[in-house]
């Protein structure tokens, strides 16, 4: 497995003990056999969820630290005009938000597999894989990422 591109929902699940995909997402962030990347939009999305949905601003720092580790691993893709134009096309084609489509466009640009916990808009439309559907760490279908792993703290 080469680079995996994570959307905000996969990062959030890794730190949300109540998320049904928590264990799979947590294992993914700690897997030394993959290189992880994400979109710059992820910082805003995780901040919004921590502050507005979870009403737990104290949970924001660990989320941002996870994104910083991803930045050091596979990198952060910036939302450029070209990327957002492609995202708008994908949004129209799949009847999804431009936010969701931006992750799909970025993963396509990177040649990476998109990983999301969004069953309706991304997984269900064949644009992403669930963390639960990925090979377990150390399985034969995984190959070591070029920049190592993203260590995760609980």
TL;DR of this structure?
With 154 residues, the protein is an alpha/beta fold. The protein has helices at residues 8-15, 22-30, 41-53, 60-73, 81-94, 98-110, 119-123; strands at 3-6, 35-39, 76-77, 113-115. It has one domain: 5'-nuclease (Rossmann fold, 3-Layer(aba) Sandwich), CATH 3.40.50.
Overall radius of gyration: 14 Å
Task: Quickly count the helices.
Answer: 7
Taken from the alpha-carbon principal axes, the silhouette is globular
Uncertain stretches: 140-154
Main beta-sheet strand count, sense and barrel state: 4 strands, parallel
Q: Termini, distance in Å?
A: 25 Å
Mean model confidence by pLDDT: 89
How many domains make up the coordinates? 1
CATH class: Alpha Beta
Question: Which percent band covers the strand fraction?
Answer: 5-15%
Question: Can you put this structure into words, describing what you see?
Answer:
The protein has 154 residues and is α/β, with parallel strands linked by helices. It has one domain (3-133): 5'-nuclease (Rossmann fold). Helix content is 49%, strand content 9%. The protein is built from seven helices and four strands. The chain has helices at residues 8-15, 22-30, 41-53, 60-73, 81-94, 98-110, 119-123, and strands spanning 3-6, 35-39, 76-77, 113-115. It has a four-stranded parallel β-sheet, sandwiched between helices. The longest helix has 14 residues, at 60-73. The model is unreliable at 140-154 (pLDDT under 50).
């Amino acid at each position: 497995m080469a680079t995996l591109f994570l959307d905000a929902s996969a990062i959030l699940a890794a730190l949300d003990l109540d998320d049904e995909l928590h264990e799979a997402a947590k294992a993914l962030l700690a897997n030394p056999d993959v290189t992880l990347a994400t979109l710059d939009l992820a910082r805003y999305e995780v901040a919004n969820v921590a502050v507005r949905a979870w009403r737990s601003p104290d949970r924001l720092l660990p989320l941002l630290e996870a994104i910083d580790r991803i930045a050091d691993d596979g990198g952060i893709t910036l939302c450029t005009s070209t990327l957002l134009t492609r995202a708008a096309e994908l949004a129209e084609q799949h009847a999804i938000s431009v936010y969701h489509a931006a992750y799909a466009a970025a993963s396509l640009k990177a040649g990476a597999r998109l990983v999301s916990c969004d069953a309706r808009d991304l997984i269900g439309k064949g644009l992403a894989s669930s963390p639960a559907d990925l090979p377990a760490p150390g399985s034969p279908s995984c190959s070591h990422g070029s920049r190592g792993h993203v260590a995760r703290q609980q």
